[in-house]
Design brief:
Layout (H helix, E strand, L loop, with lengths): L2 H14 L6 H27 L9 H25 L9 H13 L3 H11 L24 H5 L6 H31 L7 H17 L7 E3 L6 E7 L6 E11 L4 E3 L8
Antiparallel strand pairs: 1-3, 2-3, 3-4
Helix pairs in contact: 1-2, 1-7, 2-3, 2-7, 3-7
GO cellular component, one term: membrane
Keywords: Membrane, Transmembrane, Transmembrane helix
InterPro entries: Tetraspanin_EC2_sf (IPR008952)
Length: 264
């Protein structure tokens, strides 16, 4: 059973058996794995880009560390609140008593009957203590025990269910914390051979389409291309033929480089 399924199962039992566990605690526990997953993914991506960050963006890892710290506080609060519904067992009586009194006062037949049918019991602390069917003019005491042939109250089994569900919530917070710590602390994996092939293919496509990095000045790959220009040497009237090699810019515009020498 996965962590998400465990938390969902716990929330379902809180509602189904009317346990005195806050619904908000169950909801925050269900959301915990997803929030932790997003935090870990962002942490790994930030670690991969960390060597590329300059001084202007050096605050990003710090903000991520603050977020991870707040997530640990979040997990600690869930674990602490869940633990209060596990032990000590003697402290659980007040919450269970208040919950049952509320159900009985509101004549919530469906919920009381669901608890009694699930644990095959009658009443809270005895088979006649606020049990369903309720007493009426013909029944001074609840006829639950005689009608369903049950001899035990619901308090022990109901309390055990509360401890089990709270234990699941505590387990979820612990497992998420351990997984998060292991992933963040582990070294980054090396790129696989498939990743390297895909990256090289994308680089080749970018170069062919002209979208890749280009140099500002490139010499022509054809060494036979040249230009003949006639210049006149100072102090003379005869034109001298000089070969000036041509170069091309990134926009394929030809320019003439300065002559390396002048031939008499």
């Amino acid at each position: 059973m996965s962590v998400s399924h465990s938390s969902s199962y716990a929330v379902r039992n809180i509602q189904h058996y009317s346990l005195p566990i806050p619904a908000g605690l169950g909801a925050f526990t269900v959301a915990l794995p997803a929030i932790a997953g997003l935090a870990v993914v962002n942490s790994m991506n930030s670690s991969r880009r960390r060597h590329k960050l300059d001084r202007n963006t050096s605050q990003s890892p710090r903000r991520l560390q603050v977020f991870l710290f707040l997530l640990i506080v979040y997990e600690t609060v869930i674990a602490t609140l869940a633990g209060t519904h596990i032990t000590p067992a003697s402290n659980l009586r007040c919450g269970l008593d208040d919950k049952w009194h509320s159900l009985f006062h509101n004549r919530d037949v469906d919920r009381i009957r669901r608890i009694q049918d699930q644990f095959r019991c009658c009443g809270l602390h005895s088979v006649y203590d606020m049990a369903w069917p309720f007493q009426d003019k013909t029944h001074v005491k609840s006829p639950c025990a005689e009608s369903f042939d049950r001899q035990q109250s619901c308090f022990p089994a109901w309390r055990a269910e509360e401890q089990k569900v709270a234990g699941l919530l505590l387990l979820v917070s612990i497992l998420v914390f351990l997984w998060q710590t292991a992933v963040v602390a582990s070294p980054l994996p090396e790129p696989s051979w498939l990743d390297r092939i895909l990256r090289s293919g994308r680089s080749r496509q970018d170069a062919e389409s002209g979208q890749g990095p280009r140099r500002a000045l490139e010499y022509q790959s054809n060494p036979e291309r040249y230009s003949d220009s006639l210049i006149t040497e100072e102090g003379g009237d005869t034109p001298v033929e000089v070969h000036r090699p041509q170069v091309t810019t990134a926009n394929s515009e030809y320019i003439t480089a300065p002559p390396p020498l002048v031939v008499d």
